[in-house]
Amino acid sequence: SVGQNKELDDVDNLAKICPSCHASLGRGSADEKTQKELIIKIFKHKPNILEFCKSYFDEEDFETVVHKVWESLK
User: Which residues contact 58 (CB under 8 A, 6 or more apart)?
Assistant: First the structure.
């Protein structure tokens, strides 16, 4: 999810990740660098998710999109 906005959940925007990566993406569960690295890996393996996030945040700059997704973690 993009933060609390569950109505944006869609099968096309889902990425399969392992349980430890999932746990690491919770707010405060890992350091910022680690979480951003995980977000980048998701974007590289699922470019449609990157495109969705660019559209959602109305932002084209890759690093800015990564940061905005990181800020939206629960």
Answer: none
Q: Which of 65, 55, 49, 38 lies closest to 15 in space, CA to CA?
A: 49
Expressed in angstroms, the distance from the first to the final Cα of the chain is 9
pLDDT band for position 31 (cuts 50, 70, 90): very high
- pLDDT beyond 60 at 1: no
Nearest C-alpha neighbor of 30 from the set 17, 12, 43:
17
The tokens for 53 are: 């996030």
Measured between alpha carbons, how far is 66 from 34 in angstroms, rounded to an integer? 12
Distance CA 71, CA 74 (A): 8
SS3 63: helix
